[in-house]
Specification:
By secondary structure, the protein is of the alpha+beta class. It contains six helices and 13 strands.
């Protein structure tokens, strides 16, 4: 009888409405120990070819999103997951959970999963961000986090190269908005809020406020103490992508800033989770080129200024090291 119920629930994917989102609970406890991956490559990351304007999600042409209902009963839930695992392979399950702003640890932290009819494990087919932003054509690296849809995007010279889920600051400890720059990074940092919290692939973006992105639980809603939580693969990718600051001798002052990072918008606290709206409209979370351009434009001049300065500083350091190495080599020749 239970098996019949399970299969009925699984194949009843088409829902006209979803349950009201659960109110965010207190912060999750320290995650179980997880080995930090050494391989820094991400097979699910692709570089999109520049296009003249933002293309619509693939789902518009090839299908739509379905709702996967999750029962409250633990036994039914566990059995249903076995069916879910049989229907979708590991990479497909990863993509589905990412679309719902969940990691594997928090996979059932919801009563409904939004599931695309066609699974793209790169996630690029479902990007809510424009594929091309001409306003960023001269900006080599740029990372942006959206509070409204709890997602981040990475642009290189205006082309979207990656996007993914995040869990940002909870309502009582919200992440700072505006333009910031990547500072220092550490493969395994310790939280300043609670020493038991380990933060793999931490990359600081606001030194005085202690804000950074790193791997940690993604429960399906904003839950952090102002940091930007990421899936492990995304944390590793961004750790290797972004540039750090360059400090003056002694480390007291900044000589050059790192990769520009922007955080914008507000989360619909207490309302339906934004990605649930995809069930009614596959474009519900899309951010237009015009909206992105209007938001980014006032900061472009500063980003390019800091980018140019960093290149000059990096080149001068490289030249100085080369001269120093040449001088050492010349001294060794003379001594011999």
């Amino acid at each position: 009888m239970k098996r019949s119920i399970i299969y009925t629930l699984f194949f009843a994917l088409f829902l006209t409405s979803c349950k009201k989102d659960e109110v965010a609970s207190s912060d999750p406890q320290t995650p179980s120990s997880e080995e930090i991956a050494k391989n820094t490559s991400d097979p699910d990351s692709i570089k999109a070819k520049p296009v003249e304007e933002s293309a619509p999600p693939m789902m518009q042409e090839n299908g739509f999103y379905n709702a996967f209902a999750i029962p409250k009963d633990k036994k039914l839930r566990d059995s249903l997951y076995a069916v879910f695992s049989k229907k979708y392979n590991e990479r497909e399950r990863y993509a589905i959970l990412a679309l719902n702003r969940l990691d594997s640890k928090s996979k059932w932290n919801s009563d409904t999963l939004v599931v695309p009819a066609k699974i793209d494990t790169t996630l690029m087919a479902y990007s809510p961000f424009p594929l091309q932003l001409d306003i960023l054509s001269d900006v080599k690296k740029f990372v942006i986090f959206s509070y409204p849809i709890q997602a981040y995007a990475v642009y290189s010279n205006g082309a979207l190269v990656k996007w993914g889920p995040t869990s940002m600051g909870k309502k009582s400890a919200q992440t700072d908005r505006g333009l910031m720059f990547a500072n220092w990074k550490k493969k395994l940092a310790i939280s300043t809020v609670k020493s038991e919290w380990k933060l793999p692939y931490n990359f600081n973006i606001h030194n005085t406020h202690g804000i950074g992105w790193h791997q940690y639980d993604l429960p399906g809603y904003p839950a952090s103490h102002s940091c930007l939580r990421l899936l492990m693969k995304d944390a590793i990718w961004l750790y290797n992508y972004a540039d750090t600051w360059i400090l003056n001798p002694g480390g007291a002052t900044t000589k050059a800033k790192g990769t520009p990072v922007m955080v914008f918008g507000d989360y619909p606290w207490g309302k339906r989770k934004p990605w649930r709206n995809l069930l009614n409209d596959p474009n519900a979370n899309n951010i237009s080129v015009e909206e992105m351009t209007k938001m980014i434009q006032p900061n472009v001049e500063k980003m390019i200024f800091e980018q140019t300065n960093r290149e000059k500083v990096a080149d001068s350091i490289k030249t100085a090291k080369a001269s120093e190495a040449a001088a050492v080599q010349e001294t060794e020749v003379l001594e011999n």
